[in-house]
Write a structure and sequence with these properties.
ion transport, transmembrane, symport, transmembrane helix, single chain, mainly alpha, 2 domains, Na+/proline symporter
Length: 493
């Protein structure tokens, strides 16, 4: 096996790539228009789907927003960089992170059944504290923007690698396509198109990976024999991989679900008796996806590829293998559609989450007399604004892996304060806000000086310690039963 054997398929034209991008968008646009006419009457329907999402659509929606560019591309990249340790540290925490939401989701759905956002919970939990809710609102918005731009970046990498489309054009086209259909139906559109996207991700990924190994003489045996030339690549518990990204990613993944409005929006939108089951099955069904895509990283190692061969960014190793190994064009198209489905659905879901934050935590909190018609349009326009801001950041040329790890480091600062605020009644405003601020100020500084591992552990430890110390220093204890009787924001019109 040698990388000189790899060559791009001449049939992968820019026109084909653009057709796939636009074609997906048009199909989802038609779906969105039908959804809007049947199910969306007001802002409440737009951002919470009237709390009517069942188990099937719930699982599809959760899997689709969690299977973002990171899952389908970074799994290959980390396997390519670290071998089986990279695949292990990427896959294992991923499904668990979804299931970790279950006890928190059940607790909040029971105590605050009419909720919309996690920032709204914090506002009520800390006695209408605008400081506490403001910190969470800003953090959530920033995290959502990073999610959108990461998936814009992922789409750009795939389309530029497979079809040589200029990555800037791919970025702008993705923003236009996704936001065009998301604008109409909000969460209902995200849920239904996301369920379709889940099928587009899972089935093609399995077929394509099997086909890739089938084109190699000796198949998986040959690949593993080549990878075994570096014994560290076949070690599942390589400490360098754990320290280099694994532990940071594990905490980041927990933070990415627990401290992300994209998932809390689903918690309050899914029918109460299906919340736990939806997140459980989503975590279980997610696992095969990164395993399939991650296997392409082993193929990259076996062929002796280097980062320079794939354009300098190792997240391109999966698309490079698929488009250069000699697969039939139909299978390459299936792979690209799987990537587009993953990126589109996450951008769509994040945009929908952003709209709920704007409606509930900004407009209705600071301008409660805003009319329903005006609120509806502001909510929709916030999705467009978020996409534009994210696109501008992507066009600056930021590195994909750095974006992911930075996003998770910042989200990790919210993880322990948020968990403790749900589970520990003695958590107070000073501890909550102080924990987040101190962990960002100190932990991110340590991260810059000593690397990902030290920075992540510091962020978790500092945020938790500040919350606990402040709680123990105060004799006050919050009655969680009060959440259900506090004045709720009503968007049903």
């Amino acid at each position: 096996m040698d990388k000189t054997q790899l060559a791009a398929s001449p049939e992968l034209t820019q026109g084909l790539g653009l057709t796939l991008m636009i074609g997906c968008g048009l199909v989802f646009l038609v779906m969105a228009y039908v959804i809007k006419s049947k199910l969306v009457r007001n802002t409440h329907d737009f951002i919470i789907s009237n709390r009517r999402i069942g188990l099937g659509f719930g699982v599809g929606a959760i899997v689709s927003v969690w299977t973002w560019a990171m899952a389908v591309m970074m799994s290959s990249a980390m396997t390519f960089q670290w071998g089986l340790s990279g695949l292990f540290w990427f896959v294992v925490p991923n499904g668990f992170a979804i299931m970790a939401v279950i006890p928190l989701a059940k607790a909040l759905r029971r105590r605050m059944p009419a909720g919309y956002t996690i920032s709204q919970f914090i506002h009520n939990r800390f006695e209408q504290s605008r400081v506490a809710s403001g910190v969470v609102t800003v953090t959530m918005i920033f995290g959502i923007l990073l999610e959108i731009l990461i998936n814009l970046k992922g789409t750009a990498v795939v389309m530029s690698t497979v079809f040589t489309i200029d990555w800037r054009l791919a970025t702008l086209l993705t923003v236009f396509v996704v936001l065009a259909y998301s604008y109409f139906g909000g969460l209902w559109t995200s849920v239904m198109t996301g369920t379709v996207n889940t099928w587009m991700i899972t089935v093609p990924s399995a077929i394509v990976v099997v086909a890739v190994f089938g084109l190699i003489d000796g198949g998986a045996t040959t690949v593993f024999n080549k990878v075994a030339e570096d014994p560290a690549k076949l070690s599942v518990m390589n400490w360098d991989a754990a320290a280099g990204f694994g532990i940071t990613l594990a905490f980041g993944l927990l933070a990415a679900t627990v401290a992300d409005q994209t998932f809390w929006q689903k918690v309050w939108a899914i029918r109460p008796n299906q919340v736990g089951r939806a997140f459980l099955w989503s975590g279980v069904l997610f696992y095969p996806i990164p395993i399939c895509f991650g296997a392409l990283g082993l193929v990259g190692i076996a062929y002796g590829l280097t980062p320079a061969d794939v354009g300098g960014d190792i997240v391109a190793v999966g698309p490079y293998i698929v488009s250069h190994i000699g697969l039939p064009v139909i299978l390459i198209v299936a792979y690209v559609l799987a990537i587009l489905a993953a990126c589109y659905s996450t951008i769509d879901g994040a945009s929908s989450a952003l709209s709920s934050i704007v409606a509930v935590d900004i407009v209705k909190r600071y301008a409660p007399k805003t009319s329903e018609s005006k609120l509806f349009y502001i909510t929709k326009l916030s999705m467009l604004a978020g996409g534009i801001v994210a696109a501008i950041i992507v066009l600056s040329g930021a590195d994909f892996t750095s974006l992911v790890l930075t996003t998770y480091a910042l989200k990790t600062s919210v993880l322990m304060p948020l968990v403790l605020s749900i589970l520990w009644p003695r958590t107070n405003t000073l501890g909550f806000v102080g924990g987040i601020v101190a962990s960002i100020a100190i932990g991110m500084t340590l991260r810059g000086l000593y690397g990902e591992l030290v920075g992540t552990i510091s962020i978790v430890a500092i945020s938790a310690a500040v919350v606990i110390i402040a709680g123990l220093a105060s004799s006050r204890s919050f009655d969680m039963g009060e959440l259900g009787v506090k004045r709720a924001i009503n968007l049903e019109g």
